[in-house]
Design a protein that fits this description.
305 residues, single chain, alpha/beta
């Protein structure tokens, strides 16, 4: 199948949903971001800021109870839900019940930035899947480990074993080559040598849209469609950059973009923000927290004429 290059022209022809002039904050989309931990509260804050900069109108954050007050003060635009923690820095299964109250309210859900305790995170993702059925779901960082953890049989289309895990409905996953290597047990060098093939294989296996991040970022859908983007700079290879990208994508999905459209636009906006920041600061030295502020102007620049 032909690969679509993600360019400014591609994006202008694939216009994002726009709110009407009289929409309220609900009309712009409500994004729920689940993540953070005692040791990494900043990740969920980076993602949340990015989601708002991408145009979402309402924000709810769910994070570790020990840092929830700090997060609430840092992001005054958000409602912040404190979740009980495991000894390993993850969330207990009480979180699934608590977050289930948000089902039907959130326009898009992002799970993963800054989360720890891989086993607890995978268990939580499996518990959230049926609760948020029909809601666009983005899995980032530790949350992607759900595909390697044995879920409850009723959550799977083919529950025979881990290798045949499939999401009942497509989600978006955002691995880099190292993460995809871990998830698929494939050699990282092989993935880097043929990223489109690796992403497409994973997309079909898991019934997921896979955005494989790298110098050339590729997106593969389970139906065989694929896209790729070249751009940005090495300055984007910095702590927190992936959290920011995931937040941009979640914000766009909350506005009504499909998962593949939100991924394509998010990847391009993230790369273009890095290019803009490199003009002011140089290729090395700008911070992940500075990426989000570039997004609104870039959205205006890329809007259809």
């Amino acid at each position: 199948m032909m690969t679509t290059e993600i360019t400014a022209r591609t994006l202008r022809e694939w216009a994002l949903p726009e709110p009407s002039f009289d929409d309220d904050k609900e009309g712009r989309g409500h994004v729920l971001i689940i993540g953070g931990s005692r040791e990494m509260p900043g990740a969920v804050m980076l993602a949340a800021t990015a989601a708002l900069r991408a145009g979402a109108g309402k924000l709810t954050m769910a994070t570790a109870a020990t840092v929830a007050p700090l997060v609430a003060m840092a992001i005054p635009e958000a409602r912040v839900i404190g979740l009980l923690e495991t000894a390993g820095g993850g969330f207990t299964m009480d979180a699934a019940r608590k977050l289930g109250d948000q089902a039907g309210k959130a326009s898009a859900v992002l799970v993963g930035p800054g989360m720890q305790d891989d086993a607890a995170t995978a268990e939580l993702v499996h518990a959230l899947l049926p609760r948020f059925a029909g809601t666009p779901l983005i899995l980032d960082a530790a949350a992607m480990g759900a595909v390697r953890a044995q879920g409850e049989p009723h959550l799977l289309e083919e529950p025979k074993d881990m290798e045949h895990f499939r999401f009942a409905e497509p989600v978006l996953m955002t691995p880099h080559a190292g993460e995809l290597s871990h998830l698929t047990r494939r050699d990282k060098e092989q993935i880097c040598a043929a990223p489109l093939e690796a992403a497409q294989e994973a997309a079909r296996r898991w019934n997921a849209i896979v955005a494989l991040k790298g110098a050339t970022t590729v997106i593969a859908a389970p139906d065989g469609r694929q896209w790729q983007h070249q751009g940005g700079n090495v300055g984007l290879a910095i702590s927190g950059s992936g959290d920011t990208l995931a937040g941009i994508i979640a914000g766009l999905a909350a506005r009504g973009a499909t998962l593949e459209q939100a991924a394509a636009w998010g990847i391009a906006l993230h790369a273009s923000a890095g290019e803009q920041l490199s003009i002011r600061y140089g290729v090395l030295g700008y911070l992940a927290r500075e990426i989000s502020a570039e997004v609104p102007a870039l959205l205006r620049t890329l809007a259809p004429a």
